[in-house]
Amino acid sequence: MSDVTRTDSAVRFLFSAAAVRGVWVHLDASCRNMFARKSYSAAERILLGESVAAAVLLSRTIKLQGRLALQARGQGLLRLLVAESTQDAGVRGVIELADSIALDSIPPLQQLVGDGYLAVTLLPDAGDSYQGIVPLAGGRLQDCLADYFALSEQLPTALWLAADGERAAGLMLQALPGDAHDAEVWHHLHTLAATLTQAELLGLSCEALLHRLFHQEGVQLFPAEAVQFQCTCSVERSRNALAILGRDELQKLFAEQPEVTMDCHFCGANYRYTADDLGEILGEPPALLH
Ligand SMILES: [Zn+2]
CA–CA separation, 277 vs 73, rounded Å? Predict the structure, then answer.
């Protein structure tokens, strides 16, 4: 079996003798790409890294033409968090903490989010989006997401997330939908996976990690999928966002300021518009010259 690299990939796997599936993810260059866009604190890097790793894990277990996002907003310590993965494992994310937090005292998620919310959002390319609210009593993100699956899908699910400010990694186990799951087998696999250290999760290749945990269990790996930083912003999307304002509001806006700038929080791209762009923003065909 060829060695799956430790750089920016996701691998799905199945247990040969148990109705349980899994996903492993490792993010390196994509984390560096995300962190290079803003000056993040160490705590922000760790929270964002773990969140994006989680978004990739979740996105590998659903059929979706579009994006899966973990989104949090609030007035507490965590003002904003968005961690996204597309069906092609293109990732992007942004985070904003109100205050600096010491690395050894990152509070439980409930305290971070405060009066706000954390949601799993499915954003299909076509059709309506779906949003499920994540219960926050679990403490760490990995435990809250396990609670979310237990409640929303009634699927035993467990996640292990790790980040060190440079890289992020994750492992997810989930009972297969449809089958009556064997509680004893689930408990056995969960117990094995729970022995994983943060250093192992961040440092081992997929094969080495699965061998370390499950060498007696029989695991079937699917081909590795490349994960990369990828922003889905575009001229078209920024125009559409402006078009929502309507002609009257846009005319007022351009009367007040000669140039309207839209900055992408994820990748730092700038989209600039003047009154001359009004027709294109509103999707009107260009005037014919003849
Ligand atoms: Zn962008």
Answer: 32
Tell me the CA–centroid distance for residue 256 and ligand 1, in Å. Answer: 26
Same domain? For 105 and 210 the reply is yes
Query: pLDDT band at 289, cuts 50/70/90?
Result: low
Enclosing domain of residue 117: 9-229
Distance 225 CA to ligand 1 centre (A): 22
CATH code, 246? 3.90.1280.10
- pLDDT value at 247 more than 70: yes
Q: How high is the pLDDT of residue 288?
A: 59
Q: How far is the CA of 216 from the centre of ligand 1 (A)?
A: 44
The answer to whether residues 239 and 224 belong to one domain is: no
Q: How far is the CA of 112 from the centre of ligand 1 (A)?
A: 26
pLDDT reported for residue 60: 95
CATH code: domain of residue 166: 3.55.30.10
242 vs 136: CA distance, rounded Å: 34
**Mean pLDDT value of segment 12-35:** 95
Q: Based on the domain organization, do 225 and 241 belong to the same domain?
A: no
Residue 1's pLDDT band (boundaries 50, 70, 90)?
very low
Domain-located, residue 290: no
The CA 266 to ligand 1 mean position distance, Å, reads: 5
d(Cα 69, Cα 79) in Å, to the nearest integer? Answer: 16
- End position of a domain, from candidates 213, 229, 245: 229
Tell me how far the alpha carbon of residue 240 lies from the centroid of ligand 1, in angstroms: 14
- Structural domain tally of the chain? 2
Tell me the CA–centroid distance for residue 36 and ligand 1, in Å.
Answer: 13
| CA of residue 290 to ligand 1 center, whole Å | 38
Residues 274 and 148 in one domain: no
Long-range contacts (CB closer than 8 Å, 24 or more residues apart) made by 61-65? 61/21, 61/23, 61/172, 61/174, 62/122, 64/122, 64/124, 65/124, 65/125, 65/126
> What pLDDT is attached to residue 5?
47
Q: Provide the pLDDT for residue 3.
A: 41
Residue 131 lies in a domain: yes
